[in-house]
Q: What sequence folds into this?
């Protein structure tokens, strides 16, 4: 008897896989177990994802799209100011900690993600860096950053910090959620020291929207 059709099977697979990776880790997660929990055959699962690594890659792409949309939604609510670099950073931290999978990935990247990250297209980091750099330039042109800030240096610092967080637990040893949160808040405080209050209300929606759109499109096109 054929198995019943599962509505939006791919999304179901990703949702269950997220929970398994957080609970069991990359090495312990079995594709047979995942297929059973979703209610499909193992062969059907491999038709969707050729390996555990490709499944994790899709999880990260899907998660990045959702997080970018959530950041935009939260900033549109009026509690935070999208023209303030520190506010945008804090909102990003809020979104990260609201997602158990991404939080676990930062705290234990080898355990949760395995070797999947190493096999991913590294040019995604360059794309994100370019979007951040453009956003910083528009903030500066709008008078929202202090004079004399080296924008290329700032963009490199912020990008390197994020990449470094993904390897911190591997190199420095286990880190707690509290320490990760404190680190992100500290970075936001440091960024706040580079900001300047404008003499009049200034809007910089174009570069900000472009940054989020580029991030979303990047993860749709992979």
A:
């Amino acid at each position: 008897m054929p198995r019943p059709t599962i509505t939006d099977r791919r999304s179901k697979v990703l949702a269950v896989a997220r929970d398994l990776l957080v609970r069991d880790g990359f090495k312990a997660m079995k594709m047979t177990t995942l297929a059973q929990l979703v209610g499909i055959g193992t062969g059907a699962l491999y038709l969707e994802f050729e390996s555990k690594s490709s499944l994790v890659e899709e999880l990260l792409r899907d998660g990045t799209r959702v997080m970018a949309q959530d950041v935009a939604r939260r900033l549109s609510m009026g509690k935070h100011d999208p023209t303030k670099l520190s506010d945008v950073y804090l909102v990003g931290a809020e979104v990260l900690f609201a997602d158990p999978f991404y939080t676990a990935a930062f705290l234990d990247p080898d355990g949760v993600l395995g070797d999947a990250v190493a096999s991913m297209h590294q040019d995604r980091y360059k794309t994100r860096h370019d979007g951040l750099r453009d956003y910083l330039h528009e903030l500066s042109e709008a008078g929202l950053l202090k004079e004399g800030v080296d924008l290329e240096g700032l963009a490199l610092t912020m990008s390197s910090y994020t990449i470094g967080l993904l390897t911190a637990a591997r190199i420095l040893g286990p880190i707690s959620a509290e320490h990760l949160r404190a680190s992100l808040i500290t970075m936001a405080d440091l960024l706040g020291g580079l900001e300047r209050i404008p003499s009049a209300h200034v809007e910089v929606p174009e570069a900000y929207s472009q940054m989020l759109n580029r991030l979303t499109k990047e993860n749709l096109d992979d």
Summary: The CA atoms of residues 88 and 101 lie 21 Å apart. The two ends are 36 Å apart (CA to CA). Residues 1-5 have pLDDT under 50 and may be disordered. DSSP finds twelve helices and no strands in the chain.
